[in-house]
Design the sequence.
């Protein structure tokens, strides 16, 4: 939702935009047009987003139930903080487990479509008048487990369609007679576990509720049922247990419409309290743990004996039970169930119930029985269907091969006893059993054919015992068995053909054992097995042959919390033949997880719909890991990765039917379209507690069915890279971004992601236009001046850079022996005669034999002249410039010395020799600052003038010095500055070698 401050910011941004258009006189019409186009382009970009997100301050919309919201465990004290931003179309709301104390008037007035409201487990003390005003469609209201002591008469106003009101576990002592006056459609009212004292107030408050069917008043402080008003005729179920009732003190017809009446745990209630009441319509009467005598009850009251629950009525001895049976038979009672729980019965003798009317179910749970006596105590009960002997002290099931048969008994339960062993023929008395419950005992031993003869058995529960071994004969004869539960025993090995006769078995539960090995034919014979549970065992490896006999039918395979791991990525898939498998659980392999998934591990699972890989520490997922799972709808990767390698692009490329992906705490750092972009049917994406800092703006547009995105505890960066995401969350109503307003900025203290400042990301376009225009005008003014004044400098710079990126790098690493020429001769064509007649004979003659490069002779034909010059300079150890008046006026000669000097100064090589053919004044050289710079730092030679006293000797010395310069190394080995000698006009013989050495820059 958009807050007031957010709205103001957007308004200010729009105002600033129009300010640019109206108050900047330097912006012409065209500029304004461009600006307007850019603004509207940005708006259009926001409008064309295919997906958008929304969030709520303290609530989460249930992704699997439309219009349902959970606002639990938010520690809120203010109801408006919880529900203030919820949409009007919400129908289910849960605000339990908060710190609410008050419900002010009209707290839910905007939620007029609400049908279910849970406010339990808060600290509610006060409910204001009209607190639920506007909730005319509400059907269920749960206010249990609070601290409500008082309710005003207008507390539930407007709840005209409420059918279920729960006020249990509060501290109510009184009720206003008009408290429920507006609840004309109320059907169930629970006031259990309060402190209500006045029963008459209760009856007055509910007497007008013509639709009320059930009223729960257990656990209050009622001492009588004295009343002035009666219950509505619709009331059929009344719970009055755990009160302080000693006498009822109510009219004869007060309970005439009640079908279920619970008066148990009223310790002082006497039999006489029920004598003068009309109880003919009671179908179930509970009087356990009271002072009511069952004999007086049956003799003196109008209740149907067959509808009385005799639990907790101290019927512990043979005589009491026989007298009860006789009384029931004398009253011609028609019994469906004989319920004798909590009577302290220690022993049941043979045929003790033979005098009782026939019944179908007997419940002897929560007594002190130590033996079953092969059910001989039920002799003559030919209609018996179900026997329940739970929560006793049975320590074994004896051999009953010679006992009576109860051919109608189909259900037998021995749960919650202390049974250690089951002997042969233990179930001979009940040959047609369909459901047998032996779970939650201490069974450590069963004879190999303990269940012999139970050919009709459908469900067998042996879970939570101490069984260690199963044999080939253990389940022989159970031809119709469909459900076998062996969970939480101590079985270590499943031997061959253990279940070979169970060809109708649908569900086999072996979870929670110590199975470390499955023999090759362990599941042979299970032709119809659909669900196989092997979780919480010690299996270290799984392979194809283990499931060979169930591969055609198996739909659910649970392998959670085993020891499965792989040492090689080339292990073949164990599931390749399980073509009908729909649910596969591999969560939490111990002790370190699977760690390594082989290539094609899920190959063959074309029908799989749910895959659980939670709590494994997988190093990496290959791009083909999930390729075969084309039908997958749910994938759980929570805490499954080490976070070392990111999810690779294309890893989910074939999961086009995936609807829910849970990948919490897997260490992923990116939320990109390359990884998640193919999940076109995805509804729910949970990425809590990852290291995601940014979201690819293209991703959410590639997930058209996304409705739920959870990025809690992710360090989303509050920078411009996520600016689009902030806008996306403010202008939408399609995708729920969970608890957006709780996302903080890790890079900005005390800032929230939804409201971090975007000013730096959306600067005013006018600033940019003004800056661009100013820069353009400046360049257009300055550039012509620079062109006129610095033309040659710029041109030289261009060529210098050409040489830098061309021959420079290639030649920089070469050795001296790799030069093609000893010197490149740079001269003007006007001086060509001197070069050909004087220079070449003295340097390429027989005495010297130097290799010289001349442009008219050695340049490559057809090649760019600049490239030829650069190539010649960098292919020669030295560059010899023949300087004259003509040379200084030549553009190309200037370029050559310019490039040579660049090599001199940038390579730190002594590569340049200057030879002056005629005197050049300082004034003439002042224009050529680069040449003057070289002359100041380098030795140069002067061709002797004809006026010298001895021109021949001077020329010989000139050629000697020039040859020495050409022979010298390109790099000064000492790096020291040596005194320079400049030979001018007529050099003398006293000039030393040091005086003509070439200096390092």
Sequence:
């Amino acid at each position: 939702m958009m807050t007031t401050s957010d709205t103001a910011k957007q308004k200010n941004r729009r105002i600033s935009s129009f300010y640019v258009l109206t108050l900047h006189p330097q912006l012409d019409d065209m500029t304004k047009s461009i600006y307007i186009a850019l603004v509207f382009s940005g708006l259009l970009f926001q409008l064309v987003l295919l997906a958008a997100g929304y969030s709520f301050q303290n609530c989460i919309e249930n992704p699997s139930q439309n219009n349902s919201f959970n606002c639990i465990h938010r520690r809120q004290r203010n109801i408006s903080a919880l529900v203030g931003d919820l949409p009007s179309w919400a129908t289910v709301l849960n605000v339990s487990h908060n710190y609410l104390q008050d419900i002010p008037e009209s707290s839910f007035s905007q939620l007029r479509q609400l049908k279910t409201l849970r406010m339990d487990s808060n600290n509610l003390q006060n409910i204001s008048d009209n607190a639920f005003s506007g909730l005319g469609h509400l059907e269920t209201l749960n206010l249990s487990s609070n601290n409500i002591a008082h309710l005003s008469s207008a507390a539930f106003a407007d709840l005209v369609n409420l059918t279920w009101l729960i006020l249990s576990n509060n501290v109510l002592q009184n009720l206003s007679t008009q408290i429920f006056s507006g609840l004309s459609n109320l059907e169930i009212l629970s006031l259990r576990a309060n402190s209500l004292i006045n029963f008459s107030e209760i009856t007055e408050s509910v007497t007008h509720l013509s639709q009320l069917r059930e009223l729960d008043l257990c656990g209050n402080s009622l001492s009588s049922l004295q009343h002035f008003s009666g219950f509505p005729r619709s009331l059929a179920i009344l719970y009055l247990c755990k009160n302080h009732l000693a006498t009822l003190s109510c009219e004869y017809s007060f309970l005439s419409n009640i079908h279920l009446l619970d008066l148990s745990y009223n310790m002082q209630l006497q039999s006489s309290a029920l004598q003068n009441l009309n109880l003919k319509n009671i179908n179930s009467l509970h009087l356990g743990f009271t002072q009511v005598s069952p004999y007086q009850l049956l003799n003196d009251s109008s209740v149907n004996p067959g509808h009385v629950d005799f639990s907790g009525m101290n019927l512990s001895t043979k005589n009491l039970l026989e007298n009860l049976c006789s009384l029931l038979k004398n009253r011609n009672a028609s019994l469906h169930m004989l319920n004798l729980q909590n009577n302290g019965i220690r022993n049941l003798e043979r045929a003790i119930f033979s005098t009782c009317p026939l019944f179908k179910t007997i419940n002897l749970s929560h007594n002190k029985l130590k033996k079953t006596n092969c059910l001989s105590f039920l002799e003559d009960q030919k209609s018996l269907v179900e026997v329940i002997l739970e929560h006793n002290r049975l320590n074994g099931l004896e051999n009953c091969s010679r006992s009576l048969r109860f051919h109608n008994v189909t259900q037998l339960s021995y749960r919650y006893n202390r049974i250690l062993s089951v002997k042969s023929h233990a179930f001979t008395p009940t040959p047609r059993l369909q459901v047998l419950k032996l779970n939650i005992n201490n069974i450590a031993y069963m004879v190999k054919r303990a269940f012999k003869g139970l050919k009709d058995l459908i469900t067998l529960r042996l879970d939570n015992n101490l069984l260690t071994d199963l044999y080939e004969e253990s389940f022989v004869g159970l031809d119709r068995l469909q459900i076998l539960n062996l969970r939480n025993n101590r079985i270590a090995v499943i031997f061959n053909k253990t279940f070979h006769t169970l060809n109708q078995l649908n569900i086999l539960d072996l979870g929670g054992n110590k199975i470390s090995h499955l023999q090759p034919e362990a599941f042979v014979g299970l032709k119809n097995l659909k669900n196989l549970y092997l979780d919480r065992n010690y299996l270290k490896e799984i392979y194809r042959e283990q499931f060979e006999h169930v591969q055609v039918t198996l739909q659910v395979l649970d392998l959670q919390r085993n020891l499965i791991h792989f040492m090689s990525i080339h292990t073949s898939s164990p599931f390749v033949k399980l073509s009908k498998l729909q649910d596969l659980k591999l969560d939490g392999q111990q002790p370190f997880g699977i760690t390594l998934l082989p290539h094609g591990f899920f190959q063959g699972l074309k029908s799989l719909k749910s895959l659980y890989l939670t709590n494994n520490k997988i190093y990496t997922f290959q791009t083909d890991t999930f390729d075969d799972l084309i039908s997958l709808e749910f994938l759980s990767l929570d805490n499954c990765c080490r976070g070392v390698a990111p999810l690779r692009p294309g890893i989910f490329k074939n999961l086009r039917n995936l609807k829910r992906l849970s990948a919490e705490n897997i260490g992923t750092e990116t939320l990109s379209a390359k990884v998640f972009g193919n999940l076109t049917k995805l509804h729910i994406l949970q990425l809590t507690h990852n290291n995601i800092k940014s979201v690819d703006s293209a991703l959410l547009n590639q997930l058209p069915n996304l409705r739920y995105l959870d990025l809690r505890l992710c360090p989303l960066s509050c920078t411009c890279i996520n600016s689009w995401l902030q806008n996306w969350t403010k202008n939408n109503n399609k995708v729920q971004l969970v608890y957006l307003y709780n996302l903080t900025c890790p890079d900005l203290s005390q800032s929230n992601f939804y409201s971090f400042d975007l000013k730096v990301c959306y600067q005013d376009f006018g600033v940019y236009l003004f800056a661009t225009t100013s820069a353009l005008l400046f360049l257009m003014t300055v550039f012509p001046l620079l062109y006129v004044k610095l033309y040659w400098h710029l041109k030289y710079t261009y060529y210098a850079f050409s040489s830098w990126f061309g021959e420079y790098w290639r030649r920089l690493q070469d050795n001296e022996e790799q030069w093609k020429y000893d010197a490149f001769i740079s001269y003007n064509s006007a001086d060509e005669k001197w070069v050909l007649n004087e220079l070449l004979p003295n340097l390429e003659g027989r005495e010297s034999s130097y290799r010289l490069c001349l442009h008219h002779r050695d340049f490559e034909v057809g090649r760019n002249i600049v490239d030829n010059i650069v190539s010649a300079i960098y292919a020669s150890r030295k560059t010899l410039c023949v300087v004259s008046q003509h040379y200084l006026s030549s553009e190309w000669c200037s370029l050559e010395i310019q490039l040579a000097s660049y090599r001199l100064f940038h390579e730190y090589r002594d590569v340049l020799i200057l030879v002056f053919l005629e005197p050049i004044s300082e004034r003439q050289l002042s224009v050529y600052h680069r040449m003057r710079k070289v002359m100041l730092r380098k030795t140069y030679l002067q061709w002797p003038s004809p006026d010298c006293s001895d021109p021949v000797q001077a020329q010989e010395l000139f050629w000697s010095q020039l040859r020495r310069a050409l022979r010298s190394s390109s790099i000064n080995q000492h790096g020291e500055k040596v005194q320079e000698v400049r030979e001018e006009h007529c050099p003398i013989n006293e000039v030393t070698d040091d005086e003509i050495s070439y200096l390092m820059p």
